[in-house]
Model the fold of this input.
Amino acid sequence: MNKIEPFKPETSKIGLSNEELYLQLWEREQEHTKTRWNVTTFFFSISFAIFGFSLQTKNPPVPPIVSHGVALAIYWFAFVLFWRFNSFTDCLREYLREMEVSGQVKMNVQTRANKAMKGQYGKWLSTFSLMFYFGILYSVAVGFLWWQRIGEIIPN
Done:
């Protein structure tokens, strides 16, 4: 079982005060979060651009089904990258929360942030869940377009 170390007001094992360590971890978490969103947004933008351009072209160089498939693949790739990056962010946030709960620091930024982010809707409205639900909706919409296109190609 994971034990939380007792309060040690002097310094951490690496020569920093606990407050300095806490702030450095918090800054690292913020930098990591920014990187996570930059990477995710980049790939989401590419996915939506490919999908949008495939709808605009009358005589596309590749069949729309290929463009749509690539757009979906890029979206889900971005989602998996977000999920992977998010695990490290969660680890850092949990460590910050443990420092707060154990009394190693006087700050409670992470505890307050957790409370504010959960809000009244809980986990089902988290960023992760919203991106997953949108990905399902996006996939269904693309599937509907494929089904409609096949209906136009095959005569009754």
Residues 60-156 form one domain. Residues 80 and 111 are 27 Å apart (CA to CA). The radius of gyration is 23 Å.
